[in-house]
Amino acid sequence: MIRIENLDLSLDGAPILQGIDTEIPASGLTAVIGPNGAGKSSLLHCLAGLVRPTQGRVLIDGIDIPAAKPAERARRVALLSQGSPALPRLTVGELVGFGRWPHHQGRPSPEDHRLVQASIDSFDLAPLAHRRLETLSGGQRQRAFVAMAHAQTTPWMLLDEPLAALDPRYARDIMDRLCTLSRPGPEARSIVVVLHDLAMAVRCADWVVSLKGGRLVQSAPRAEALTSRNLSDLFEAEILVDEVQGRPVAVLA
Ligand SMILES: Nc1ncnc2c1ncn2[C@@H]1O[C@H](COP(=O)(O)OP(=O)(O)OP(=O)(O)O)[C@@H](O)[C@H]1O
């Protein structure tokens, strides 16, 4: 479980997050939603220990994240930030291999190689494994970064807009893959995803954290959070949540 206690974050003197106090369950997939500038990425950075809150605490499975050593954090939490960095000359296989670094510190074992291959296969990257990142499309590169986060084999995966630049089929495939990964089982991961695509949130999220203006609006199970009324209030636009062929969908009216 992630416990966020009375968290404030200021950057360069500007209040970014204020009074965030909630829990995120370990089981399943949590979507973090809210309008542009709501503080979603900033919250994810606090959860990953990338930035230190100005006030309050973040506990992941009981570990005080800002106080934990970087190596300890890296074994507990994998963070995929918004926008993948340019890493010229690196192949997909090498990038995914970097996910194992916190475990082997430069001396990969056969098990590390096996886990890298499993992540490559899991995200449908085998045909691209020897390609350099700069030769890939934006969506292919994005998939490689998600696979790198997966290869870190942390109990928690924090992903900031992992669907950006993906076409509808790959967006759906990656979300369904993440959904499956978050289901109970020996390899289950706790997944927190910043999502702009509300259709994917209603399709896959078990829990939803809604932010607006740096404040927590709601932290609740999907059925409670993702209603037409809540989403319309959150985004100040009429959004309808309904069912099409038995599946929940969200559409802008
Ligand atoms: N270093 C910084 N200094 C000052 N303000 C910042 C800094 N970084 C972010 N902000 C501001 O903090 C607010 C929250 O930004 P954040 O990126 O967390 O929002 P977000 O909900 O992820 O937005 P988006 O959906 O547009 O990606 C924004 O108003 C942003 O301009």
TrEMBL record:
<protein>
    <submittedName>
        <fullName>ABC transporter ATP-binding protein</fullName>
    </submittedName>
</protein>
<dbReference type="InterPro" id="IPR027417">
    <property type="entry name" value="P-loop_NTPase"/>
</dbReference>
<keyword id="KW-1003">Cell membrane</keyword>
<dbReference type="GO" id="GO:0005886">
    <property type="term" value="C:plasma membrane"/>
</dbReference>
<feature type="domain" description="ABC transporter">
    <location>
        <begin position="2"/>
        <end position="238"/>
    </location>
</feature>
<dbReference type="GO" id="GO:0005524">
    <property type="term" value="F:ATP binding"/>
</dbReference>
<dbReference type="GO" id="GO:0006826">
    <property type="term" value="P:iron ion transport"/>
</dbReference>
<keyword id="KW-0547">Nucleotide-binding</keyword>
<dbReference type="InterPro" id="IPR003439">
    <property type="entry name" value="ABC_transporter-like_ATP-bd"/>
</dbReference>
<keyword id="KW-0408">Iron</keyword>
<keyword id="KW-0410">Iron transport</keyword>
<keyword id="KW-0067">ATP-binding</keyword>
<dbReference type="Pfam" id="PF00005">
    <property type="entry name" value="ABC_tran"/>
</dbReference>
<keyword id="KW-0406">Ion transport</keyword>
<keyword id="KW-0813">Transport</keyword>
<dbReference type="InterPro" id="IPR051535">
    <property type="entry name" value="Siderophore_ABC-ATPase"/>
</dbReference>
<keyword id="KW-0472">Membrane</keyword>
<dbReference type="GO" id="GO:0016887">
    <property type="term" value="F:ATP hydrolysis activity"/>
</dbReference>
<dbReference type="InterPro" id="IPR003593">
    <property type="entry name" value="AAA+_ATPase"/>
</dbReference>
